[in-house]
């Protein structure tokens, strides 16, 4: 069910209403939303999908949580920007929902609290008509906190929970009974609250809005939560609806090129992230696809083009909400210039950030040795990146470059799972040749090579000190820095605001 579209030029805002948790209450909220909008067109989708599962729908069960989350995911696919959740019980896990969606969710309980503050600024004693499940989770205590407010709940009526029975009972409001016993139970619950000194009564079940007229006039105000929520939805923008929580910064990783190198990159991301607990670490999306055609084979004219596969992986990361892409494969960067123009998010260029790192760390250096695949060397991408920073690239002579390839791709090479023996001997021989040619800084320019030779300062032939630099680590640090910068910017932009 949809309302009219927004006028041309208006901000693109589409509401998604979770209606199936209480079908009658959801329909009531939708009607009041349309009436509150008046002649202003709004774009809204009412999703009336009943909650199904073994657990009673009056509980904040795992089934309920997953049901609501699935609806929010469906809203994401349908272009919704703002979620309307007319269910108090579902607000007991609102933080869990917000942590896993980029959509704004308008806070129902916050709307009711702010209405009470505005309409009755001197009120302190608030009576709450909530279900047992909502009371157990102390939802209203979170919002109507002392010392500003003092809450009270109704006593039992003849040994039963009158509010829960009135709504969820066999002949309750959810079953369409809008008069008779459910209304009488609620009247007695209201009387109990008034006896306890309630100055205003707030329903904690949206179904109660359906029987406000039947309850008749009371000595104290009784809030219509659906009316209040409808006005709140129309009053706030989607940023305000989200409660000021910034969307998590996601790093997209094109993995599988190769698999062990991807794991090494992820380990270094974790290692360089300042974190005191699990939740402080970065949010990642990893597209682990070892079936991407070999980059080197194509560059030396012996294999299929991996461009489409690399691009497809990047697009999946982009569509998954990544804010930047990291490709922990040096050779794959020969294809980045083809891919980047078609993406709306940046690829962190491993070679460029490494060359800049070298200039900052080794300002006096001129010649940089490069241990890399023949495809990387043939493409010239490292030569160009280093030249942009004023460096000259040194590479092993052909015979030793063949040994580098054997160390990476050979039967006893690192891609086959070996990190000792012949593969290490081959790499060390090529390294010695670069040192003999004058290199004092050497790039481990294939992401598998740090598995053979850890980065750092080592003693080369004749005791010469040589610095081995790991581009994988440089890339990891650059990604962490980008995520940290984005988080700081979001924190600075988020100004404390008092809700409507």
Layout of SSEs?
Layout: E1 14-18, H1 23-37, E2 43-47, H2 62-77, E3 82-84, H3 94-98, E4 104-106, H4 108-119, E5 125-129, H5 132-136, H6 139-143, E6 150-152, H7 162-168, H8 181-195, E7 200-203, H9 212-215, H10 225-235, H11 238-241, E8 250-255, H12 259-272, E9 283-288, H13 295-299, H14 307-319, E10 324-326, H15 336-339, H16 350-361, E11 367-371, H17 374-379, H18 381-388, E12 392-394, H19 398-409, H20 422-436, E13 441-444, E14 456-459, E15 465-469, H21 471-493
Parallel strand pairs: 1-2, 1-3, 3-4, 5-6, 5-7, 8-9, 8-10, 11-12, 11-13, 13-15
Antiparallel strand pairs: 14-15
Helix pairs in contact: 1-10, 4-10, 7-8, 12-21, 16-18, 16-21, 19-20
In words, what does this structure look like?
This protein has 500 residues and is of the alpha/beta class. The chain has helices at 23-37, 62-77, 94-98, 108-119, 132-136, 139-143, 162-168, 181-195, 212-215, 225-235, 238-241, 259-272, 295-299, 307-319, 336-339, 350-361, 374-379, 381-388, 398-409, 422-436, 471-493; strands spanning 14-18, 43-47, 82-84, 104-106, 125-129, 150-152, 200-203, 250-255, 283-288, 324-326, 367-371, 392-394, 441-444, 456-459, 465-469. Helix 4 (108-119) packs across helix 10. It is elongated, with a radius of gyration of 31 Å. The model is unreliable at 1-11 and 495-500 (pLDDT under 50). Pfam families: Asp_Glu_race. Belongs to the aspartate/glutamate racemases family.
Characterize this entry briefly.
The chain is α/β, with parallel strands linked by helices and 500 residues long. It has 21 helices and 15 strands.
């Amino acid at each position: 069910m949809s309302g009219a579209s927004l006028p041309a030029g208006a901000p693109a805002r589409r509401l998604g209403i979770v209606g199936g948790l209480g079908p009658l209450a959801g329909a009531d909220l939708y009607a009041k939303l349309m009436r509150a909008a008046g002649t202003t067109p709004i774009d809204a989708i009412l999703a009336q999908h009943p909650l199904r599962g073994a657990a009673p729908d009056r509980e904040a069960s795992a089934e309920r949580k997953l049901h609501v989350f699935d609806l929010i995911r469906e809203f994401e696919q349908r272009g919704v920007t703002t979620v309307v959740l007319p269910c108090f019980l579902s607000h007991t896990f609102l933080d869990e929902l917000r942590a896993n969606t980029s959509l704004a969710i308008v806070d129902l309980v916050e709307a009711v609290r702010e209405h009470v503050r505005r309409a009755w600024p001197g009120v302190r004693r608030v009576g709450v008509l909530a279900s047992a499940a909502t009371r157990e989770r102390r939802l209203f205590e979170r919002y109507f906190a002392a010392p500003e407010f003092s809450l009270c709940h109704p006593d039992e009526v003849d040994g039963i929970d009158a509010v829960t029975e009135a709504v969820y009972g066999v002949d309750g409001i959810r079953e369409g009974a809008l008069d008779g016993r459910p209304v009488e139970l609620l009247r007695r619950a209201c009387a109990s609250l008034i006896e306890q000194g309630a100055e205003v009564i707030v329903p904690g079940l949206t179904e109660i809005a359906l029987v406000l007229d039947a309850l008749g006039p009371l000595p104290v105000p009784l809030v219509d939560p659906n009316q209040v929520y409808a006005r709140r939805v129309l009053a706030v923008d989607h940023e305000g609806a989200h409660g000021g929580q910034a969307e998590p910064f996601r790093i997209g990783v094109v993995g599988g090129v190769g698999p062990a190198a991807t794991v090494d990159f992820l380990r270094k991301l974790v290692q360089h992230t300042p974190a005191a607990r699990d939740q402080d670490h970065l949010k990642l999306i990893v597209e682990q696809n070892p079936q991407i055609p070999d980059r080197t084979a194509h560059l030396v004219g012996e294999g299929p083009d991996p461009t489409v596969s690399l691009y497809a992986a990047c697009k999946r990361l982009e569509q998954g909400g990544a804010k930047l892409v990291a490709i922990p494969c040096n050779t794959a960067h020969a294809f980045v210039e083809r891919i980047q123009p078609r993406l709306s998010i940046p690829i962190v260029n491993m070679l460029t950030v490494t060359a800049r790192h070298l200039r900052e760390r080794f300002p006096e250096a001129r010649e940089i040795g490069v241990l890399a695949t023949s495809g990387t060397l043939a493409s010239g991408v490292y030569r160009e990146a280093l030249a942009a920073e004023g460096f000259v690239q040194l590479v092993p002579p052909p015979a030793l470059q063949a040994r580098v390839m054997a160390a990476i791709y050979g039967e006893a090479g690192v891609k086959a799972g070996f990190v000792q023996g012949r593969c290490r001997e081959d790499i060390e021989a090529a390294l010695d040749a670069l040192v003999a040619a004058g290199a004092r800084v050497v790039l481990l320019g294939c992401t598998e090579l740090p598995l053979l030779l850890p980065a750092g300062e080592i003693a080369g032939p004749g005791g010469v000190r040589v610095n081995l630099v790991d581009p994988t680590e440089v890339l990891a640090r650059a990604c962490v820095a980008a995520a940290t910068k984005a988080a700081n910017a979001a924190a600075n932009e988020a100004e404390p605001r008092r809700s409507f």
